[in-house]
Amino acid sequence: MEESNMEKIENMFAEIANKLTGMDDKFERLINENTAMKEQNRLMKEKILHQDRKIDSLEREIRRKNIIIKGVEDIINERAEDTRDKVTKLMQDIGVEMDEKNDIDEIRRIGKFKNQYKRPIIIKLTSGMKKTQILHSSKNLKGSNIWIDEDYSREILEERKMLIPHMKEAKQKGYKTQMKYNKLIINGEMYGIEELSSSHITEGGERMNFAKRTVSERSPTGDSYMEQSRKVTRTSTPKN
């Protein structure tokens, strides 16, 4: 009788062991499947990121020789030749000679006509040198309500817009600044919007207050804008 009971117990434990082994196998398969899915997801993200960069690069290349003119008087049903004449006169006013056949691929207004709104004009040039010449000569428009700029995508325009407050702040603190594409150059150092946004917040959550002096006056070692930012963060954060 006792042997029969022991045999039943042994069989029961053997059955439990078999079930546990089966569960271990299932868990291992699930872990492997999850790992494989994570790897596929990672590869997919890398592929999408690569494609996005490729698209951005292609779009930038397409826009590379374009310029945008804003503020030129606009009329309803403006003809293409009227737009060209206005651009030709504007180029003459800023001292740029334009050969319409050799220098220009296309000139046109952007968007539909609206009252009290001057549609921008896009000029697709054939030469990067001509574009540089026009942008350099656009300083002669100072004091007018017309300005000439690069042809940026909507995303880049948004980033540049977010950089403006940082540019103004840096100028107020005595730094030399220049905006280039979607980056801000401060005293020769290049920064993106994420770097600048994070560098302007102290550990206590307050905005930094830069001393109104030049880098050479503040730092004999010529610390960069970000290095100065970190120093101000450390000195402005109260100790516990």
UniProtKB/TrEMBL annotation:
Record-linked InterPro entries: Transposase_22 (IPR004244)
Residues in a coiled coil are: 27-61
At the top level, the lineage of the source is Eukaryota
Keywords of the record, alphabetical order, are:
Coiled coil
Location of the region described as Disordered in the Swiss-Prot/TrEMBL record: 204-240
What name goes with this protein?
Answer: Uncharacterized protein
Native source organism of the sequence = Photinus pyralis (Common eastern firefly)
